[in-house]
Amino acid sequence: MTIKDTAEEWQVTASETPFVGNKTSVRTDDVVMPDGSVARRDYQVHPGSVAVLALDDENRVLVLRQYRHPVRHKLWEIPAGLLDVPGENPLGAAQRELYEEAHVKAEDWRVLTDVYTTPGGCDEAVRVFLARDLSEAEGERFEVAEEESDMELARVPLADLVRGVLAGELHNNCLVVGVLSLTAALRGDGVDSLRPADAPWPARPFEA
């Protein structure tokens, strides 16, 4: 038996958008169920995101600590950001986020994993990249604002992050998925077996 997610779209008899925000919106769909009944589903419409697990030569991961108001926590995270432009190449977006949030560039890029963060209530898709061969970026640092102005940066051994995840001390979705996926890759077929950085992404098709 092949375990693989498959694309499918059930019939929608009515749809409305009761809220439109700066980056996301809320949609309400009336969806036909398998028994013929119709159920109403509310969900957040999201442009998609990229995240970067940047691993240095000492097997440390570049992480940042940032306040997240909806959960009232300062969370340790990996660099990440929205796909601001429809059809935007996710690799370019990931490279931009690594530069803006950490002033770092990387020479080696792979796709670590693709996830839907909360598919029961949001259509956000995230591509998590593995970035290696790190160095300081050239030019001036990106000028941060709002929550990012209070951001802390650190390089933490991968093993310490795994322990923090399993101990319930680290909660950010992309960090958790990223460090556990990298650990699995390292213990399996190795990072050279990961998909190339320009691998297709059906959830968010992009221009090459």
TrEMBL record:
<protein>
    <submittedName>
        <fullName>ADP-ribose pyrophosphatase</fullName>
    </submittedName>
</protein>
<dbReference type="GO" id="GO:0005829">
    <property type="term" value="C:cytosol"/>
</dbReference>
<keyword id="KW-0378">Hydrolase</keyword>
<dbReference type="GO" id="GO:0019693">
    <property type="term" value="P:ribose phosphate metabolic process"/>
</dbReference>
<dbReference type="Pfam" id="PF00293">
    <property type="entry name" value="NUDIX"/>
</dbReference>
<dbReference type="GO" id="GO:0016787">
    <property type="term" value="F:hydrolase activity"/>
</dbReference>
<dbReference type="InterPro" id="IPR015797">
    <property type="entry name" value="NUDIX_hydrolase-like_dom_sf"/>
</dbReference>
<dbReference type="GO" id="GO:0006753">
    <property type="term" value="P:nucleoside phosphate metabolic process"/>
</dbReference>
<feature type="domain" description="Nudix hydrolase">
    <location>
        <begin position="44"/>
        <end position="178"/>
    </location>
</feature>
<dbReference type="InterPro" id="IPR000086">
    <property type="entry name" value="NUDIX_hydrolase_dom"/>
</dbReference>
